[in-house]
Amino acid sequence: MTVPSSAKSAKNKLWTYTVTRARKTNVVKSEALISPFGKQISCTYTHGPTHESLSFQGTDDRNYEWRSSSHLSTVNGSRYDVLRHALFLVTSNNGPEIIVADHTHWDGFLTMVSCPDEALYIRSQGVDATMIVATLQVLKDWEMESCREERRKDPVGVEMTAADARMRDLGRVAYWRESDFNSYTGAEVGQSLGSSVG
Predict the structure, then answer these.
(1) Could you name the domain of life of the organism this protein comes from (predicted)?
(2) Per-residue model confidence (pLDDT) at position 2
(3) Which long-range contacts (CB under 8 A, 24 or more apart) does 182-189 make?
(4) Which residue has the higher pLDDT, 132 or 110?
(5) How far is 193 from 114, CA to CA, in rounded Å?
(6) For the whole model, what pTM was predicted?
(7) Could you tell me if residue 7 is inside a domain?
(8) 124 and 89 in contact (C-beta within 8 Å)?
(9) Domain limits at 83?
């Protein structure tokens, strides 16, 4: 990935993310994503009925929104690792929305010795790539929080989905357990994945 020239001057500095929660209710009181240059971005995560989203105003003062391909769930056979995400530049006056970037957990390449990787395709060169990565990570963190909440409510349903997913290669990678690899060497781990994809 090419880092924009403006980000090169901030070398060795990172994006930081803070969340403040109420002690008794655990409700989020405030959250902020801060760029290496000190610009604060307010993010709004929505666990919606049809998809997940993270809205924010970017470092360039334009409005963006990450959206998932479907509703996030880890019960009834639904898996978090099959969601795709797209980052939209949200325009005013009901104009066309522009896809700035897209993300998938699996890039489609699976062999006996390597697992597929996450893939992020940045389509717009003029958008801060570090902002895209930082906000995607915030979205994924909130999605994992939603998964944990679902596990608290329905641990049996989540475990049934995980057991079903683990019967396939990609599911074993996403829902791995330490015991899966205790008796294997590095080379044997790749061979143990087998051949059923999904």
Answers:
(1) Eukaryota
(2) 40
(3) 187/113
(4) 132
(5) 9
(6) 0.77
(7) no
(8) yes
(9) 44-189
